[in-house]
Specification:
about 325 residues, mainly alpha, globular
Length: about 325
């Protein structure tokens, strides 16, 4: 009996350790996940466009296909690659983060430039044309998964860089948990967003009370404004996060001047307020991100994009 009690005591101790480990994984994942706000907001703002032009009953199946592709990107492709890099070449992580930060700055600045100087885009108009619904669905899903891969790479790299772990398996578990949680959050939010107008239409037509029907009409009218707000917030967050990543990366690589100057200004403006100092820092990070992104627009559109198109064309020709 004493042996059995000792065994049960050991089992209880192991259970406590396991529970503590789970708590640590969740805590680390939440801490790391909070760093990817800008990318997550933009991901949620961008994805609804991929279901534009489809019947309502195809919206959720399309989002589910994209969700599965996103999980494959994060868990099967990116997570093993990032863990190996972090284990054997950790010096690569900061340049990778900076590369992703530059991409965020470019994307955010491109949106700002388009708002300031509206212009048509034949490729976008062709992409948004419905045409053959079956072919369009396949094309849209593939396009969404490719876009998700870029955003997921940035998300997973940011999460990994913020995990404090001594164990490879603890690091892997935290990265996997955070990746799945972010994916569920993003595409769950997207599903709610794209179906909210349908819910509003149903409530407006079938509500038993005047207030219920009014809420339904409000949802229908309010969704376009919500999507526009998400786009604005997502763009601002991209510029802030992208600029912050670049500035912090320069500091880590031994070029701390810009990081130090912003820090000194933030402290001078708000010496006692943590939020005030954070806000000043975020504003300067966002301004830097916007300037860098605007400088990158001609480089990407006139050099990198044509070069990539030429390489892709050669590859397609070889097939």
């Amino acid at each position: 009996m004493s042996g059995l009690l000792a065994l049960l005591d050991d089992v209880a101790a192991i259970a406590k350790v396991a529970a503590a480990s789970v708590d640590d994984v969740v805590g680390q994942a939440a801490k790391a996940g909070s760093k990817v706000a800008g990318v997550v907001i933009d991901d949620a703002a961008v994805t609804p466009k991929y279901v534009t032009g489809f019947e309502a009953d195809r919206e959720l199946p399309i989002i589910w296909k994209i969700t599965k592709g996103s999980l494959f990107n994060k868990l099967i492709v990116l997570m093993p690659a990032l863990l190996l890099l972090n284990a054997f070449a950790p010096w690569v992580i900061t340049p990778l983060l900076m590369l992703g930060g530059a991409y965020l700055c470019f994307e955010g600045a491109e949106k700002v430039f388009h708002w300031l100087f509206p212009h048509g885009d034949a490729h976008v108009e062709k992409d948004m044309s419905v045409g053959d619904p079956l072919h369009l669905e396949e094309t849209r899903v593939k396009g969404a998964i490719k876009t998700d891969f870029i955003l997921s790479a940035e998300i997973m790299t940011i999460i990994l860089s913020n995990i404090e772990a001594d164990s490879f398996w603890f690091e892997a578990a935290t990265l996997a948990f955070a990746g799945v949680a972010v994916t569920v959050f993003v595409y769950g939010a997207v599903a709610l967003i794209v179906k909210m107008d349908d819910v509003g239409v149903w409530m407006a037509a079938n509500g038993h009370t005047g207030s219920g029907r009014a809420v339904g009409r409000g949802l229908v009218k309010g969704m376009p404004k919500l999507l526009k707000l998400l786009t604005i917030v997502g763009t601002a967050a991209m510029l802030w996060v992208g600029g912050s990543i670049i500035i912090h990366g320069l500091d880590v690589l031994g070029m701390p001047w810009l990081y130090d100057q912003i820090h000194h200004i933030a402290v001078a403006v708000s010496p006692e307020s943590g939020f005030g100092a954070w806000l000043v820092t975020a504003i300067f990070d966002g301004i830097f991100g916007l300037v860098l992104g605007l400088l990158l627009i001609p480089v990407v559109t006139r050099v990198i994009a044509p070069l990539f198109a030429a390489v892709s064309g050669k590859q397609e020709a070889s097939h």
